[in-house]
Amino acid sequence: MIPIITTITPSWQIYLPEGIRRAMKLTKPSRAKISVRNKKIVVEPIKSEIFKAAGSLAGVKPTVQIDIDNVRDYVDYSQW
């Protein structure tokens, strides 16, 4: 890939150009791990925590049937 020039803002933010985002397969804003290796900035996307739980509840049945039309009846508002 040909190097792409970008800007570091006064707030120290870096814009990731579209070509870089495509090369990294980034489709939406997310979190990333940033580090320095051999005086180069390395950005590594982090998968969302919610996706780590994917499938963990497969086959688990709800313990209480909830009437979706009256869902507010099941919420405990005493701590708000």
> How far do the termini sit from each other?
53 Å
Order of helices and strands: HEEH
Instruction: State the major sheet.
Output: 2 strands, antiparallel
- Taking pLDDT < 50 over at least 5 consecutive residues as the criterion, the unreliable ranges are none
Q: How many extended strands?
A: 2
Strand order in space, largest sheet: 1-2
The shape is elongated
Counting helices, strands and paired strands, the structural category is alpha+beta
Give the averaged pLDDT, no decimals: 84
- What Rg do the Cα atoms give? 22 Å
| CATH-derived architecture of the domain at 15-52 | Ribbon
CATH class of the domain at 15-52: Mainly Beta
> Residue share in helices?
10-25%
> Could you say what the CATH topology of the domain at 15-52 is called?
Pemi-like Protein 1, Chain: D
Number of helices: 2
Please indicate the percent range of residues in DSSP E strands (runs of 2 or more): 15-25%
Task: Give a structural overview.
This protein is of the alpha+beta class. Helices cover 12% and strands 18% of the residues. 0% of the residues are buried. The protein contains 2 helices and 2 strands. It has a domain of 38 residues: Ribbon (Pemi-like Protein 1, Chain: D), CATH 2.10.260. It has a two-stranded antiparallel sheet with strand order 1-2. The mean pLDDT is 84. The termini are far apart.
